[in-house]
Amino acid sequence: MKKTGVRGLAKATGLSVATISRVLNNADNVNKQTRERVLNAMREVGYAPNPAARALATSRTKTIGAVVPTLAHSIFARFLNAVERELAQHGYALVIATTEGRPEAEERRVGELMNLGAEALILSGAEHSKALLDGLVGRGIPAVCTSVCETNNGLPAIGYDNAVIGEAAIRHLAEVGHRSVAVVHGPVSDNDRTRLRISGVERGARATGVSVSLRESTLDVEGGVAAAQQLFGDIADVTAVLSLSDVIALGVLFEADRRRIAVPDELSLMGCDDLDWSAHSAPPLTTVRLPTARMGICVAQSLVRHLDHGDSIESVRLEASIVERNSVRRPRRHALSAARPA
Amino acid sequence: MKKTGVRGLAKATGLSVATISRVLNNADNVNKQTRERVLNAMREVGYAPNPAARALATSRTKTIGAVVPTLAHSIFARFLNAVERELAQHGYALVIATTEGRPEAEERRVGELMNLGAEALILSGAEHSKALLDGLVGRGIPAVCTSVCETNNGLPAIGYDNAVIGEAAIRHLAEVGHRSVAVVHGPVSDNDRTRLRISGVERGARATGVSVSLRESTLDVEGGVAAAQQLFGDIADVTAVLSLSDVIALGVLFEADRRRIAVPDELSLMGCDDLDWSAHSAPPLTTVRLPTARMGICVAQSLVRHLDHGDSIESVRLEASIVERNSVRRPRRHALSAARPA
DNA sequence: TTGTAGGCGTTATCAG
DNA sequence: CTGATAACGCCTACAA
């Protein structure tokens, strides 16, 4: 079965390549019978259009690239899942590149996506190397920063306000009556979102007068466990712990369980993300719901509208909301003050 | 800044397009000085090669497509993360398409990936429509089935033996002394891997004489919780529950915790997957470790070797292993027999 | 409604 | 080591 192109189909049907091309693109100005004839011929020879040729001729690849730190964290996976879904609906494909925790790799990955033909890019966060940014504008490739709602690099941002999120969380805890809370957060280096959340937490702490003690951990359950071990091992005079990520909160929850520290009776626990399991843990986790899926859809739509209709890409600020469940409650008179054995 | 191609560079440097192309592809037969001259010119005009043109000329896109049910389950996300990583190392890009629980969408998605230029495809499981399979061979596109280790459709498979996994799990429970176990598994329709695991469980049950009661749930924590609620609500005369997915096990664990059913003292719990948190839960989950990352690397390497060197793609059977932690132990004299309030 | 012809930006084959 | 030049497969005015 030899490869047949529009050319071969033209011969086979006695038509011209132009007509073949027209039915290929569902042009309206084709005789119904002619179209059928072509369609049949395509079927018989097992015709498959060559995407590269089409791309070359139209200079459109219908491909959008996304670079994220990793796929292994469900927050990114969920986001990209939504993006992919929406993109597919509009005939676009999603190419994914991960930086695997090496932000300095972002520039290279972006370059690879461009060399691949990505028409637009989805970036994570607002921090990007100047070279990367210059490359983008130099080649006129539209891009949008996600998980943040503003940037100072000229790129539009579609996401939420991390500082507001951090502040809202601490304020919630304060309103419930907590005066001393341990905050455990993911790696702060190379992660502007985490830094923003922390700054929000500090702002909220100042405003409400609650005292916070920060603690960094890796961004996984194990990190949460480790942080909790330290915390519970020390003289922990806190009545609540706020995890700036639900995965970390899960680790804290596990460790608390191991030490028979009752949540929320003895210790309140609040997370951030609202992952798949957050509503079903024991106890169900009070957390900040991030509009991950909506963000993905919004990003995809903005990009598609820009590419298809030339609409400009506007920054969008999506609202996050606290979802109260059962892991936070008014603290008892005394804080959890004695070290508790594992 | 007008778009400059190899042509423009040729003019600019007074060289020919051939030479430009040579330095572009790091051909060795180019004078060092000439190369520098070209490189500088490229820099100055901000030259960017056109991937579509290159693809057209070489008929290589360096792109591989993967279609998975969803990115929202970490088992797939982890797999693709490994694939992407390995692929990138060899200069290939990964395009992802999800079926979102509609297996009938697979065929369409595969078509889209082809129209995009994917040179090879990564499929999930061994069940695929005949039309899809025919299309693959018709267009000569290599593909590999994953998460299974054999197929009857002519495609190579790279993965593990799900039946053996199910059997090993139940045997492990049997060896520890369990005689009656509840098995909760994900949706069985359109998921040959789950069906295989179940068949393995049944085989193991027959061989060891343990009695198993199956229960289907959705493939998430909520599903595990729901299954556990039923289970614990009934007169549950089981001493162990085996979840064919760790996410489901997490739901069971949460519900057990809620009902103050001690794991593993009163009830043993075993999972399958070995996710990120499995080693850190309370108690740490005894589970079957699936070689997800290794599978991803293996798939990527096989495909790359095939594409780059023409090696044939061989099926590979990766070993899964039981990792004993602390959620399973010898049952007490009596099974958990009374219904326990929530 | 259909046909003709030129071009999209690279690569690759030959000469030189 | 370098230069012409012909593909690559499809799209798209412009004609008919």
Describe the structure.
Two copies of one chain form a homodimer. The first copy, chain A, contains twelve helices and twelve strands. The longest helix of chain A is centred in the last third of the chain and has 18 residues, at 292-309. Chain A is of the alpha/beta class. In chain A, helix 5 (74-89) links the parallel strand 1 and strand 2 (93-98). Chain A is elongated, with a radius of gyration of 26 Å. Chain A has helices at 6-13, 17-24, 32-45, 51-58, 74-89, 106-116, 130-138, 162-176, 192-208, 221-233, 246-258, 292-309, and strands at residues 63-68, 93-98, 120-124, 143-146, 157-159, 180-185, 211-216, 240-243, 268-270, 287-289, 316-317, 321-323. In chain A, the strands form three sheets. Chain A has a six-stranded parallel sheet with strand order 2-1-3-4-5-11, with helices on both faces. In chain A, strands 7-6-8-9 form a four-stranded parallel sheet, with helices on both faces. In chain A, strands 10-12 form a two-stranded antiparallel sheet. In chain A, 44% of the residues lie in helices and 15% in strands. The model of chain A has no long low-confidence stretch (mean pLDDT 94). Chain A folds into three domains: 6-58, Orthogonal Bundle (434 Repressor (Amino-terminal Domain)); 63-161 and 292-320, Rossmann fold; 162-290 and 324-338, Rossmann fold. In chain A, helix 1 crosses helix 2 (17-24), helix 1 (6-13) crosses helix 3 and helix 8 runs parallel beside helix 9. Chains A and B meet through helix 4, helix 5, strand 2, helix 6 and helix 10 of A and helix 4, helix 5, strand 2, helix 6 and helix 10 of B. The structure holds a DNA duplex (16 and 16 nucleotides).
